[in-house]
Write a structure and sequence with these properties.
Length: 443
């Protein structure tokens, strides 16, 4: 029987081959927008100018094309209209290709749908030759017992986050070290299979080959968390249009992922209903005048809004900014309370640091940092993605955190369990293989 992990290896090989050829794209399929970045790789070790990048070089690449379009067929981070989503993806990729003057065939994609669930796995084996080898790594990963998470869910991440050798722990790569017993802690993230299949089918219709799939909370953490935050522990809260992705990082690995099925679009809908505005007008007013913490002057600050009942040109309607804040704040409080519940369930309060980073397109609301500090506790800051070479300033905001994180992940991917050879006679191996069987069917 062929190794069921072979398709995962082929996926990574496909990505590596595309990078060696010099071009690959990353695609963030969200409820509010679809964003595409075309990356051009070179053999240069350092960026052209130190002023162009404020991060360590992680595989020399440059963003040469950007395409962003409004997403009309995605809700809660999941596809609800295949035709609309296909058109949005084709349009975003076409815009990025036109800017880059390059054709793209391979994409790495992320999204926040699928009701993610996290599992902590562990395994332990005897070291065969006294010195940890690649085979020992595969054997200890194969020894992890995968819980019965259901036939309707699929695993997209299986990250070894910590190795221990005898009494030494915190090892990132134990290969070549001497010891008797090797153990591993692994984090596995699963998604509902239907949203994943829908996304893969949509990409196939767009004539794109998938070279990787990631949870958007993972991608946002890669681009937004500082090195000490990833090492000591921090949570990333990516407030998107239709959902809010949550992830917790520790020792530079994602150890928890989840999502709240609420986002910026729900705030806009509340404004539509509360102030009787069209969606377009509500989004504009939210962007220009919105906020979450009222001051004494807000009740005296009038905002002119369209009046659908107006009969004369000077028949205008106004609302105070305090009224607008009064509509927006309850929904944001609801989102943050849901985030707090999930962080508590993840044991976030037991981490060495209590740093929470807010990012995503909806994180730009004035007063969010203060309100989140009250509800979530800990140290809260607004995070923007690290600058990468060639990224236009217009695409460097918090709304592009996931896309930039995918670019960094493409250039410096983390090891996952299917990157190692595993013995086929281990029960644990068969269970893990079953957990990712869908790769074979789709890629």
């Amino acid at each position: 029987m062929n190794d069921l992990f072979e398709t995962q290896r082929e996926m990574r090989q496909r990505r590596e081959a595309a990078i060696k050829r010099g071009v690959i794209a990353v695609l963030d399929v969200g409820s509010y927008k679809v964003s595409c970045l075309v990356l051009q790789f070179s053999n240069e070790e350092e960026p052209e100018s130190a002023a162009d990048v404020t991060m360590p070089s992680m595989g020399s690449f440059r963003v040469v094309g950007v395409g962003t379009v409004r997403s009309n067929g995605v809700k809660f981070g999941e596809i609800t209209d295949m035709g609309e989503t296909e058109r949005a993806i084709r349009s975003a990729v076409a815009k990025a290709q036109k800017m880059a003057l390059l054709r793209v065939d391979h994409v790495i994609v992320c999204f926040a749908g699928g009701r993610p669930r996290s599992y902590g796995l562990s395994g332990e084996v005897e070291v065969e030759q006294g010195e940890v080898s690649e085979r020992d790594i595969g054997r200890v990963l194969a020894s992890c017992e995968v819980p019965p998470y259901g036939q309707d869910r699929e695993a997209i991440h299986a990250l070894p986050v910590n190795f221990s050798l005898d009494h030494r722990t915190g090892l990132e790569d134990p290969r070549g070290q001497v010891g008797a017993r090797l153990s591993v802690d692994m984090h596995m993230l699963t998604l509902a299979d239907a949203p994943v299949y829908d996304l893969l089918e949509c990409l196939k219709r767009c004539d794109l080959e998938v070279a990787g799939l990631a949870f958007s909370g993972f991608a946002s953490g890669v681009s937004t968390l500082m090195e000490n935050e990833q090492q000591l522990g921090a949570a990333i809260v990516d407030l998107g249009g239709g959902s809010t992705a949550i992830s917790v990082f520790m020792r530079k690995h994602m150890i928890y992922g989840d999502a709240v099925r609420l986002g910026g679009d729900h705030i806009t809908q509340d404004i539509c209903q509360g102030l009787q505005l069209s969606y377009t007008d509500a989004e504009r007013i939210k962007t220009l005048h919105g906020g979450l913490v009222a001051t004494g002057s807000d009740s005296r600050l009038d905002i002119e809004v369209p009046n659908p009942l107006a009969q004369w040109e000077n028949d205008r309607r106004t609302v105070s900014r305090s009224d607008l804040i009064g509509v927006m704040r309850p929904r944001v409080e609801e989102i943050l309370e849901e985030v707090r519940v999930r962080l508590d369930a993840a044991g976030f309060d037991h981490l060495p640091t209590q740093r929470i980073v807010l990012t995503g397109g909806a994180s730009a609301m004035p007063g969010l940092e203060e309100l989140a500090g009250r509800i979530l506790g800990g140290q809260v800051r607004i995070g923007r993605p690290l600058r990468v070479q060639g990224l236009p300033h217009s695409s460097a905001g918090a709304g592009f955190s996931a896309a930039v994180g995918l670019a960094l992940h493409a250039s410096h991917p983390m090891d996952e369990c299917w990157d190692f050879e595993m013995p086929v006679d281990r029960i644990g191996t068969r269970r893990i293989k079953a957990a990712v069987r869908w790769f074979r069917q789709n890629w």
